[in-house]
């Protein structure tokens, strides 16, 4: 199954978090901001994959997304307690945990009210991990599969295929890059270090260009 409609050689896309609007959860217990999903116009429980950021403002139970695998990372300064099928996990800032969309998941942020970052993929072919680039360090995207990078701390510069000034775009906190196969691009940490959450969607293994 293709995890992107009309995959082709699509141009890398930058999404500004400040321009997005939150929507209610399927179970009504909170709100989430969809950063990017495919297809873009489908309901949350019918997409191939979705990246989102949910509010953490008190104890809540996650919506049922049977058929998906999900990844979650708190963006809070304090640890967050997540109970998955009755087993407790304490997650620090940017720690990633994964579970099935059909699992019973309860979240209690305690005093750590804030937000989290989520990836869900129908069928489960994906991954999500944190990376830190030193100032001036480069990371390539788009060689072999759909790759999403969300800026967590610092700033990054997107350097595309062209040499002109219009081919350089700066990304700040929670801004997101979506890169597609066949259209390589590069993120560079500038002016200082940058921390990213990098996600792959699809079964392909990250190529040597995408490894640090």
Please provide a written account of the structure.
Helix content is 0%, strand content 48%. The protein is mainly beta and 212 residues long. It folds into two domains: 20-122, Jelly Rolls (Sandwich); 126-204, Jelly Rolls (Sandwich). Strands 2-3-4-11-6-9 form a six-stranded antiparallel beta sheet, with no helix packed on it. A hairpin with an 8-residue loop joins strand 15 (156-159) and strand 16 (168-171). Residues 1-7 and 205-212 have low confidence and may be disordered.
Count of individual helical segments: 0
Q: In total, how many domains does the architecture comprise?
A: 2
Strand order of the largest sheet: 2-3-4-11-6-9
Largest sheet: 6 strands, antiparallel
CATH topology heading of the largest domain = Jelly Rolls
Radius of gyration: 17 Å
CATH architectural group of the largest domain: Sandwich
| CATH class type of the largest domain | Mainly Beta
CA-CA gap between termini: 29 Å
Layout of strands and helices, then pairs:
Layout (H helix, E strand, L loop, with lengths): L12 E3 L7 E2 L6 E8 L10 E8 L3 E2 L6 E7 L5 E5 L2 E5 L5 E4 L4 E4 L5 E9 L3 E8 L4 E4 L4 E8 L2 E4 L8 E4 L4 E4 L5 E5 L4 E8 L11
Antiparallel strand pairs: 1-17, 2-3, 3-4, 4-11, 5-10, 6-9, 6-11, 7-8, 7-10, 12-19, 13-18, 14-17, 14-19, 15-16, 15-18
């Amino acid at each position: 199954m293709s995890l992107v409609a009309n995959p082709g050689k699509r141009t890398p896309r930058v999404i500004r978090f400040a321009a997005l609007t939150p929507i209610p959860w399927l179970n009504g217990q909170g709100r989430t901001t969809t950063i990017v999903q495919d297809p873009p116009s489908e309901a949350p429980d019918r997409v191939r994959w979705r990246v989102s950021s949910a509010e953490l403002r008190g104890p809540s139970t996650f919506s049922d997304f049977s058929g998906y695998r999900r990844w979650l990372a708190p963006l809070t300064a304090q640890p967050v307690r997540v109970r998955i099928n009755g087993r407790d996990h304490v997650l620090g800032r940017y720690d990633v945990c994964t579970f099935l969309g059909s699992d019973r998941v309860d979240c209690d942020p305690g005093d750590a009210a804030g937000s989290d970052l989520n990836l869900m993929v129908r069928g489960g072919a994906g991954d999500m991990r944190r990376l830190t680039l030193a100032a001036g360090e480069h990371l390539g995207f788009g060689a072999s599969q759909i790759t999403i990078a969300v800026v967590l701390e610092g700033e990054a510069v997107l350097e595309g295929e062209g040499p002109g000034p219009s081919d350089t775009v700066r990304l700040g906190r929670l801004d997101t890059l979506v890169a597609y196969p066949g259209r390589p691009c590069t993120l560079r940490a500038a002016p200082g270090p940058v921390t990213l959450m990098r996600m792959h969607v699809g079964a392909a293994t990250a190529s040597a260009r995408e490894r640090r």
